[in-house]
Amino acid sequence: MAAIDPIAPGPRRLLARLRALMAAREDAQERLDHLTEMIAQETGADVCSIYLARRSGALELCATHGLKREAVHNTRLERNEGLVGLVARSARPQAVADAPSHPSFAYRPETGEEPFKSFIGVPILRGGRLVGVLTSQTHKSRETGDDEIETLQTVAMILAEIVASGDVIAAEDLAGLDMRPSKAERFQGGAYSPGLAMGVAVVHEPHVTSTRLIAENPEQEETRLDTAIGELRRGIDNMLDAGRLPFGGPTRDVLEAYRMFANDRGWLNQLREAVRQGLTAEAAVERVRNEHRARLMQAKDVHFRERLHDLEDLANRLLRHLAGSNTHRPVDLPENAILFARSIGPAELLDYDRTRLKGVALEEGSASSHAAIVAKALGIPLVGQLEGALDRVEAGDPVILDGEFGLIFIRPDEEVTTTYQDRAEALSRQARAYAQLRNEPSVTADGQTFELHLNAGLLIEMMRLEDTGAAGIGLFRTEFQFMVADTLPRLDKQAELYRAVIDSAGDKPVVFRTLDLGGDKVTPFAPSMREPNPALGWRAIRMGLDRPGLLRYQLRALIQAAQGRELSVLFPMIATPWEFKAAKAMLTREVDFARTRGHPVPERVQAGIMLETPGMAWAIEHALPHADFVSVGANDLMQYFYAADRQNSRVWDRYDILAPAALQMLKSIREACHRHNVPVSMCGEIASQPLEAAVMMALGYTKLSMAAGGVAPVKAMLARTDIGKLGTWLAGEMASDAATLRSALLNAGEAAGIRLEAVDKQA
User: Fold this and answer.
1) Mean predicted confidence (pLDDT) in 18-47
2) Among 94-108, 216-230, 390-404, 527-541, which stretch is predicted with the lowest mean pLDDT?
3) Contact 614, 641 (CB under 8 A)
4) DSSP E strand boundaries for 688-757
5) Strands 47-53 and 59-65
6) N or C: which end of the chain has fewer CB within 10 A?
7) Is 676 a catalytic residue?
8) What is the average per-residue pLDDT within 280-297?
9) How far apart are the C-alpha atoms of 652 and 279, rounded to whole Å?
10) pLDDT tens-digit profile of 470-522?
């Protein structure tokens, strides 16, 4: 774009007059009328008009200087109609020297616009949404300079705030305008943490806005902008050059994109031109963001739409630098808050008040993402893969979040609200019924006993032991402490956490899983590796054995924490017997190390295999003589068994655990453990689903470990199931070539020992 004289009086004088207009006490229509007159005077145009979007999508002439007054509120153009519609569709400025000759020109005789030749139209954007079109026309045909378009874009940015003000929205003549999303919206996503929430929307990382729009000193604003850009660049460079990325933050690829955008001359020139037009640095960032956002939202190419997220986050980071803070602090939540975000890390999620946070809605995410794991731990419903939801929700909107079926309703209608209110009451009654099961014996309908344990990773989850009546902690994920820390947690801090977990459990057993880091689980203090397939890469026990100091450090902390009590250590992602033998030998050496130095050692130490790879499933006979227990990590095991990435929404639910081949493998693992008299348990999502849990028990898995929300539904299911009859039915079906036995099992019903009323989707 052509450079603009920073001291040119036109734009600045116009903005000064706009400042006075915004302060004047006028009704909405008078303000819009004066605005068109003012713009025409300052730009030398014969006509200036404001078209605003209605909820129907049409663009209504709401104010004009130069066209017939009687056309105001009587002329409407569809978005496929006229040059005004062309501006709206493209979300770009349009300048035409001879408008009547343009193929998109639409003549409206009621406006009297036929004599006018030149046309300039710029979109009026707010939050990336089109709320109207600002036009300028002259009698004579002429070419339009970049400076004139820049001036109108600057005015349009301020106009967006004027028309969104309360008095404009409330004006009778302007009723029905689409100043903010208002219609009911429904999104189908993935159900990643169960439950139902009804509340109001809160946006995570909301747009940072400023009440200062018009600059008093443009030179000073440009200096502020340059300073903030410099700070932004340095912050990104530091994160990349340090070779580490904070957990929950952007990936290296995204940060590389940020670096590219932060050094893009086109973007920076647009920001500076907007400031030189008379906007504050904050308003300039907002204007440029709106323009990019409106265009990129229309892109069909996924790559371009992904760049929108990069630009959005970059703009917010720059605005926080301008505000004097480069960190995000969670907002104060209203009662019954439902949090909307593109994505969110566990540390960020834990920053919010858990007594007020009732649900989480993500544009990204997966069932096994860290946010989903934490949400389940806290009993907070979470729905993910809600593409486009952030574009249609605003803070304060009423929202219904259905964590059972993966649904989000924004501004729901009365019928939907009533339906879900009834369902909420039913779920409340169900919860009371589940609460009565807490102290009931864990026995199936045919008299077989079972144990239900909790999966946990946070100290706060230990409170759920008492709430659920679970028999113990079947899996405590130790990596969360590492993932949210800026530096390697000290030995005493690790031991303190593990001791608190053991103390909280009382006389109930706790199984600690050693660090399951690597892949997508990145820590600030460990160098990140860009791997083509992280799920199959350098992670878990592989990292522990390759960096023995890290694993030994943790084992030493666990031994200190046990202090004469029983210690159960589970080693993750064991792929071959030698990996387990090496890990167990390291544990033994650390116990001996503590004993020789006179430190308290655990009363008993047990070393277990977390069986998560098909390779280990077929080599289990060679490892069992050395193992004290086995825990089947069903999430990863099924991922590797089916070669289906559990982080990929296209394939993660493509295959069913209740397929004969998968069940046969799980049965063989259980039988091998039985032959060697080694206790075996089932851990993960499979264990928390009532129907799947019943099938697992029929295969011989009498100990199941799951998220707290699954305990009561699974207990209710097993208490009503004839496991012996189910086992007999499975034996007759497992030789089939069916893709899944699920439908056949449900159809068999009581003939297979299953009472269908006990199959609870809430789990």
Assistant:
1) 81
2) 527-541
3) yes
4) 703-706
5) antiparallel
6) N
7) no
8) 76
9) 48
10) 999 999 988 876 765 555 778 888 899 899 999 999 999 999 999 886 655 55
Domain 449-711 superfamily per CATH: Phosphoenolpyruvate-binding domains (3.20.20.60)
pLDDT on residue 6: 40
Give the separation between CA 451 and CA 448, rounded to whole angstroms: 10
Give the integer Cα–Cα distance in Å for 690 and 354. 27
Q: Check 292, 321, 370, 453 and give the catalytic one.
A: 370
Give CATH superfamily name and number for 218-322.
PtsI, HPr-binding domain (1.10.274.10)
Domain 185-204+331-428 has CATH 3.40.50.300: no
CATH number attached to the domain at 9-170: 3.30.450.40
Sign of CA dihedral 334, 337, 339, 340: negative
Let me know if 370 is a catalytic residue: yes
Q: Which of 82, 44, 40, 99 is nearest to 64 (CA)?
A: 40
| % of residues, the chain, pLDDT over 90 | 35
- The 3-state DSSP class for residue 488 equals coil
CA 203 to CA 201: how far, in whole Å?
Answer: 7
Distance CA 282, CA 398 (A): 29
Using CB atoms within 10 A of its CB, is residue 105 exposed (0-12), middle (13-18) or buried (19+)? middle
Residue 360 bridge partners (DSSP):
339, 382
- Binned at pLDDT 50, 70 and 90, residue 605 comes out as very high
DSSP letters of 88-108? Answer: HHHTS-EEESSGGGSTT----
- Write out pLDDT tens, residues 296-324: 655 554 444 555 555 666 777 788 788 77
* Least reliable range by pLDDT among 2-11, 376-385, 503-512, 571-580: 2-11
